[in-house]
Amino acid sequence: MSRPPVAHDLDLCLCHSCGLACDMTHEPHECERCDAPLHRRKTNSITRTWAYLLTSLVFYIPANLLPVMNTKMVGNGADSTIMSGVLEFWEAGAWDIALIIFIASIAVPGIKFVALTLLLVTVQRNSLWARRERSKMYRFVEVIGYWSMLDVIVVALVAALVKFQALADIEPRPGILFFGLVVVFTMLAAMSFDPRLIWNESREKPHIEEVMDEVASH
Q1: Where is the signal peptide (predicted)?
Q2: 0.85 exceeded by the pTM?
Q3: Among residues 146, 185, 147, which one has the least CA distance to residue 49?
Q4: Secondary structure class of 83 (helix, strand, coil)
Q5: 99 and 9, same structural domain?
Q6: Which of 119, 123, 159, 180 has its CA 20 to 30 A from that of 134?
Q7: Are residue 36 and residue 72 in the same domain, yes or no?
């Protein structure tokens, strides 16, 4: 049973910038439409993804332990971490803002850490387990990555609202910087991962089966 040709067999490569299918037989290997450099695969995908992911994990610790903002009401100031801010909004009745901060600051990064770690480990082990589901998981990580800055936006909106009051003031604290770095590095980790690695062996398997069939026929 012959397998259908893949892009590598046809010397084609998809441009990562504009999505054009480009001919790799011509030099230099640049996109004909946008002049971006062409790569058949993302270079050092696993190594770079691990590096960005571990860096984001390191920044995630101070992002949750350090205060993200300081609120002064009638001369009295108080620092708030991400979790204490969630609890304060919840107790004040602003459950919608509390839920947004919790999802964007705690749930989303946690999901991305677990999902990317699972993808990296299974790819390194050449696992055949749930390939279609893992591909969908990667697309899900890409989608939720765009909503990771909601917490920073909420802090900015709260600061704007508080400053409208004459006796109140709000200032950012170092925790918000570390959280911004967590968002940036998790997005870089997701962008560095090559989801085609999930299917590497599935393209080789039909070829192996074809060879085995030929040997059996002789």
Answers
A1: none
A2: no
A3: 185
A4: helix
A5: no
A6: 180
A7: no
Structural domain that includes position 102: 42-217
Q: 11 CB contacts (<8 Å, ≥6 apart)?
A: 23, 24, 25
Do 23 and 122 fall into the same domain? no
- Total count of domains within the chain: 2
- With a pLDDT cut of 70, the percent of the chain lying above it is 72
- Give kind and range of the element (H or E) at residue 78: strand 76-80
* Pair 74, 114 in one domain: yes
pLDDT tens, residue by residue, 13-55: 777 777 778 877 777 778 888 878 877 777 788 899 999 999 9
Strand 21-23 vs strand 76-80: parallel, antiparallel, or unpaired?
unpaired
**pLDDT exceeds cutoff 50 at 197:** yes
Q: Which range in 131-135, 169-173, 176-180 is most confidently predicted, on average pLDDT? A: 131-135
Q: Between 96 and 77, where is the model more confident?
A: 96
Considering only CA atoms, which of 78, 79, 87 is closest in space to residue 105?
A: 87
Taking 60 as the threshold, does the pLDDT of residue 1 lie above it? no
